Amino acid sequence: MTRIACSTSVRSGSGLEEALAALSAAGFRYVDVLAIDGWAHVHPSALTGKASLREQIARTSELLERYELQPIAANSGVSPQLHDRSSGAIARRRAETEGLVHWMKELGIGFCAIQPRQPDPSRPWQEVMSDCVASLKEQVEIARAEGVTMALEFHVNSPFETMEQCLAFLERMPNMPIVYDPTHFVMQGVPLGETFSLMDRSVHVHLRDAAKGRMQTRFGTGEVDFGLVLGELRSRGYRGAFSIEYLDTAHYDVIEDAAKLFALIANEFPD
C-alpha cells in the first residue's frame, strides 16, 4: 500500500505537539517530521548529547503514540551549511547527523530528506558543489552504516536550485538518491515536463501546489498539474512514499489543502 504522509510543515509556526495534534485531528495516519535546525520541529543540534538525544527520542515517541501517528520520513537540515568544509563544521555535521540517524532509528524512520541549506554566492558554483558533494558523501555514509536512506532535495535558494545545477550534480554524484519536488522548479518558471527526468532517481516525493514566483498556492489554483505528475510517476514505476508539504501560513489553514491533495494521491496510487 502506498504510504502518504503529511509533513509537520503544515504547522511549522507551532511546536511539535501542536503539529502532530492537528495532523491527527485531520485524519492523517503517516507523518513526515521536520528536523531542520533553526526552524522546526526537531533540531539536530539538540541530538548530539546523550542526555538530550534520549530526551528528544522519548518526547517524540510519546507524542507520536499519543496522537496515533506513524513517522515514515524526516526532512532534515543540520546546522552547518552544506558547503562549509571548515574543521568545526565537519565535526558538527558529523555529530548532528549521527544524532539524527540514531533518533530516526529509535522511531522506526528509515528515510530522511536532506535540505541543502543556503548557497555561497561568494565562490564559483563548481567549487561550492565540490564541497557540498564531500559533505553529502559523509552524511550518506553515516546513514548507510545504520540502515537509513538519505536523499537530497533540490531546493530554491540553495546550491542546487536551477535545473542546470541539479543536472550537473546528478552527473557528479550519480549514486545519490534524490527527492522529487516540482515546486522549486515551477516557481522558477521551469515547465513541469522538464522536471520529469528527475523522477528516475527519486526515492521519495514531496508535493504541494505552486506557480511561477510563488512557492505555494491554494490546492488546484497553481501550475502543478497533479494528474500529470502522478501519472508520470506511475508510468515510470514509482513505488515510494509521498509527503504532502504545504507550508504553514496565516492566510488560511493549509491542512484543508493537504487533505484534498491526500485524496487525489490516494485515488491515483490506491495500492
Protein topology:
Blueprint: E1 4-7, H1 16-25, E2 30-36, E3 40-41, H2 50-66, E4 70-77, H3 87-107, E5 111-114, H4 125-145, E6 149-153, H5 163-172, E7 178-180, H6 183-186, E8 202-207, H7 226-235, E9 241-244, H8 254-268
Parallel strand pairs: 1-2, 1-9, 2-4, 4-5, 5-6, 6-7, 7-8, 8-9
Antiparallel strand pairs: 2-3
Helix pairs in contact: 2-3, 3-4
Organism: Cohnella zeiphila
Domain Xylose isomerase-like TIM barrel: 20-249
Protein name: Sugar phosphate isomerase/epimerase
What features would you describe in this structure?
The protein is of the alpha/beta class. The chain has a single domain, classed as Alpha-Beta Barrel (TIM Barrel). The chain contains eight helices and nine strands. The protein has helices spanning 16-25, 50-66, 87-107, 125-145, 163-172, 183-186, 226-235, 254-268; strands at 4-7, 30-36, 40-41, 70-77, 111-114, 149-153, 178-180, 202-207, 241-244. Strands 1-2-4-5-6-7-8-9 form an eight-stranded parallel barrel. Strand 7, helix 6 and strand 8 form a beta-alpha-beta unit. The radius of gyration is 18 Å and the shape is globular. Pfam families: AP_endonuc_2. GO terms for molecular function: isomerase activity. Keywords: Isomerase. Residues 20-249 form the Xylose isomerase-like TIM barrel domain. It comes from Cohnella zeiphila.
